[in-house]
Amino acid sequence: MLAGRTPWVIVLTLGAAGFLSIVHMPDWAVDYRPQWTAMTVIFWITTLPDRVGVFWAFFAGLMMDVVTGSLLGQHALSFSVMGYLTVELEQRIALFRAWQQAVSIWLILTVERLLSLWVLSATNQPTPSLSYWTTTFVSMLLWPWFAAALRGLVRRLDLA
Amino acid sequence: MKPLFNHGPSAAVRMVIALALAFALIIADLHYRQLDVLRSSLAVTVYPLHFLAALPARIARDVENQVVSNMELRAENDRLHRENLSLRARLQRFASLESENERLRNLLGSAFKVGERVLIAELLEVDLDPYRQQVLVDKGALSGVFVGQPVLDANAVMGQVVRTNPLTSTVLLITDARHSLPVKINRNGLRSIAIGSGLVDQLNLLHVPKKADVRVGDLLVTSGLGGTYPPGYPVARVTEVRIEPGKRFATVSAEPTARLDRSHEVLLVWSLPKLMESGAMTKTDGEHAAAINSNLEP
Questions:
Q1: B143-201 residue pLDDT tens
Q2: Neighbour count for residue B167 (Cβ, 10 Å)
Q3: Is residue B295 part of a domain?
Q4: A126 closest CB neighbour out of B30, B53, B131
Q5: Cα–chain-centroid distance for residue B25?
Q6: Domain check: are B23 and B51 in the same one?
């Protein structure tokens, strides 16, 4: 289904997102790190809904599990559900205004975090404090610029 | 061209498949060790990512090293020279003490560890899962690193290896909330277990009786029970002893002496395997320790 260079571009952007999610930051900034990989997955699903879907989300989550050294399957699970939500909501989101889009993205990202938290507590791992949720707001505020930048990339490379 | 009708299973079906896979992975990773092969082969594919992510910090450090002035280098050289001299002086005394200790222990009939082999590894400065106290080091299974291997820095115990990949390995720090480590107080030999708090600068001591002789400033060293850590290495200093009427035990917290958040180089230790089999005393210790060690599920 995916032809030409599109899958490579997606893989590269996911790799870049993975890089950004583990690159060393000062301690105070750690809570404000956006959910780069999740945002990238959402972007590709909303941009190429008939090509990118739940399985891409699953594999992106698996990459996150390996990269961050968390339990294998933890991010894969939350990303799969997040991918599904995005697939279902994608047509609606496309009609929204910018701020409405940002809010729905926040909702989806929050569901992802929620599931991740659930896996953490279900498997008896230490659960984080309230600052765990900061990242969803940071991602929401960043979303318009993030999407615009990636859209520029898509246009320049003439994908879609 | 956009296909008019989507072929293949619907998104919901796909999600169910993906969820089933994810659940299977989680359960397998929690309960069985077989997945380690999968994980380490996946880890090889993301190694470039880890390498790249560690690069900025490494470059920053190199640049810092480059621009350091001649004066500072001289000063540092002087300091190291003095330190080396005093360490050597102490080592002379240490050698004779060690042989005396060994002789005495031979008289008592208990086993004593003769020596250790160490490998210096460098920390890859990447931020792993922010809610666990883990670090990544740049030596892996190819260098002989194994799961359960103790990791030290120049000052004290840092943690143990919980996962090895061919080129890297993950170290669980002693402050992780799922890490526990058998310790004793250096001053009087009182034993306890140090549990990580999830904060980088705090350990808590488990089951310390209220009347126990623990004071602020006491040095905690590894007791060697559990068999993971060699005995006698410094771990932490007691920072607070609180007696609360409502609790059955004293609340004791300690601060790790290792520079957990600042070390760039760590030591991976191989204990010489001679110790475990000889001497009845160590055997009972080992059993006791196995019970303690089962507390730790990385």
A1: 889 888 889 887 788 999 988 888 889 999 999 988 999 999 988 889 999 999 888 88
A2: 18
A3: no
A4: B131
A5: 26
A6: yes
Q: How many angstroms separate the CA atoms of B78 and B90, rounded?
A: 19
Buried b (16+ CB within 10 A) or exposed e, B176-194: bbbbbbbbbbeeeebebbb
Crossing angle of the two packed helices A54-68 and A6-22, in degrees rounded to 10: 30
pTM for this predicted structure:
0.78
The residue whose two tokens read 């990544």 is B136
Asked if A28 has any chain B CB less than 8 Å from its own CB, the reply is: no
Within a domain: residue B284? no
Chain A, nearest residue to B132 by Cα: A126
Q: Which of B263, B297, B257 is nearest to B157 (CA)?
A: B257
Domain boundaries, chain A: 7-19+33-157
- HSE (side-chain half, CA atoms, 13 Å) at B246: 0
Contact A37, A19 (CB under 8 A): no
B94 in a structural domain = yes
Task: Note whether B178 contacts A125, CB cutoff 8 Å.
Answer: yes
- Is the residue at B286 inside a domain? no
Question: What is the tally of structural domains in chain B?
Answer: 2
Asked if residue B139 and residue B274 are part of one domain, the reply reads yes
The answer to whether A93 touches A46, Cβ cutoff 8 Å, is yes
Q: How far is B192 from chain A (nearest CA, A)?
A: 22
Tokens of B81: 């020279």
Q: Indicate yes or no: CB of B132 within 8 angstroms of CB of A24.
A: no
The domain of B46 spans 12-108
The interface predicted TM-score of the complex, written ipTM, equals 0.86
For B22, which of A19, A58, A88 is closest by C-beta distance?
A: A58
